[in-house]
Design goal:
The structure holds 2 protein chains of 2 kinds.
Chain A: H1 10-34, H2 39-53, E1 57-59, E2 65-67, H3 71-78, H4 80-96, H5 106-128, H6 133-157, H7 159-162, H8 177-208
Helix pairs in contact in A: 1-4, 1-5, 2-4, 3-4, 3-5, 3-6, 3-8, 4-5, 5-6, 6-8
Chain B: H1 2-19, H2 23-37, H3 41-70, H4 75-98, H5 101-104, H6 109-138, H7 146-177, H8 186-190
Helix pairs in contact in B: 1-4, 2-3, 2-4, 3-4
The chains are: A mainly alpha, B mainly alpha.
Chain lengths: 209, 191
């Protein structure tokens, strides 16, 4: 979901930055309360881990593969706020140092993937693990993939309605929700299955030792 | 100071490029950015085009097809959006080439240390991940079945988690041994 700069209007990214700033401040306070002097090294290594987990390949039937996001795994192991902080820093580095993504889409991606995705993963895991541990882990991986896709599709899909010329021509992203929701969400419904399976395997391996 | 001013200038340019909708002004902004890049302009422009190509091509082709089918194709939209995306992506490439982020953050020591640690660890983890992938590739003659492919990916992820736990502990000890967490005493204040 690496949307480049230029497709989101200021009416979207300015309020998104305001919202994300509040969430980043709360995440920083939560981290300072929970962690001791290992805060900086732990967060730095977690960011590097998140960065590389996004390179882990998810095999697909037919011999092809796609990149995982690892957000479900990070959320189950470390909780939503640490995951949100780590994913935000990874997205910032990807945009500014490695030239992937963009600075105007950063708050939307951070809120969708880092906050909503990890919160949904934790909630899904806590609700379903009472029934079956593996069902909870699968739900964490699936929700961490699908919910951000729904949110990003929603943000892209409202652009023609909130930023257009007097004669109705779009100024930023041109397609409405009727296009973005199926185009973005349907592939992620399938990718979410792979992410859910990877979450079961990784977290089970980690707990078995 | 120079790096911080460049960061502020970049933020202002991004807001301007998303607030102006006349393609001629956007094109003028792109020309100015190319001039500011000097001899680096061709290399940065190539990097920009590669970065924006996939997403912009999909959106542009989709827009042309939808516009032709609906009979309301507007070429000005295509020109505007592609120049805007090119300008914004070029500005980011120019910033990456011109600004030392670690120096720009030196007014905030914790953020500067964090950025240094992250960048160093990203390099280490990427190298480790590449080595794991190459080791796995060199040990098989055929494509792995789906189940084994997942087990291999999970094994790599678990190894990275182990490495992350060990490394964060080692870095914390190294920083403590160098006095990073010690409260500033009278000597520190003198310096």
């Amino acid at each position: 979901m690496h949307v480049p700069d230029g497709f989101l209007s200021p009416q979207t990214y300015v309020p998104a930055y305001a919202l994300a700033a509040g969430a980043w401040a709360y995440a920083a306070r939560t981290l300072q309360r929970r962690l001791d002097e290992t805060l900086l090294p732990r967060l730095a290594v977690l960011c590097a881990l998140g960065f590389v987990l996004m390179s882990v390949m998810l095999p697909l039937p037919g011999g092809t593969s796609v990149h995982a996001s690892g957000i479900g795994i990070l959320a189950v192991v470390f909780g939503p706020w640490i995951t949100f902080a780590a994913v935000s820093l990874v997205l910032l580095l990807q945009a500014l140092v490695f030239g992937a993504g963009g600075i105007t889409v950063l708050p939307v991606n951070a809120l969708a993937m880092g906050l909503a995705g990890s919160a949904a993963a934790c909630l899904g895991y806590r609700l379903l693990r009472r029934v079956d541990e593996r069902a909870g882990l699968f739900a964490a991986g699936w929700l961490a993939t699908v919910l951000p896709a729904v949110l990003v599709a929603g943000v892209l899909g409202v652009q023609p309605a909130i930023a257009h010329t007097a004669d109705g021509q779009p100024l930023f992203f041109p397609f409405g929700l009727s296009v973005t929701l199926p185009a973005v969400v349907v592939p992620h419904l399938i990718l979410g299955v792979g992410e859910g399976l990877l979450t079961i395997l990784v977290v089970s391996f980690l707990r078995r030792r | 100071m120079r790096d911080r001013l460049l960061l502020i200038g970049y933020a202002a340019a991004v807001i301007a490029a998303t607030s102006v909708h006349d393609p001629r002004w956007l094109a003028a902004g792109l020309v100015l950015a190319l001039l500011a890049a000097g001899r680096d302009a061709p290399r940065l422009l190539r990097r920009t085009l590669l970065a924006m190509l996939a997403f912009s091509a999909v959106v542009s082709v989709g827009y042309v097809v939808a516009g032709l089918l609906a009979g309301n194709l507007n070429p000005e939209y295509l020109i505007r959006i592609n120049i805007r995306v090119c300008l914004l992506t070029f500005l980011t490439s120019l910033l990456v080439a011109r600004v030392d982020f670690l120096r720009a953050l030196n007014f905030w020591p914790a953020a500067s240390y964090l950025a240094t640690l992250i960048l160093s660890q990203v390099v280490t983890f990427r190298r480790l991940f590449d080595e794991l992938r190459q080791a796995a590739d060199s040990r098989r003659l055929r494509r792995l079945p789906l189940r084994e492919g997942y087990a291999q990916s999970a094994g790599a992820a678990v190894h990275l988690f182990d490495k992350a736990e060990r490394t964060s502990g080692e870095i914390a000890l190294a920083m403590r041994s160098r006095g990073f967490f010690a409260p500033a005493g009278p000597d520190a204040r003198r310096h």
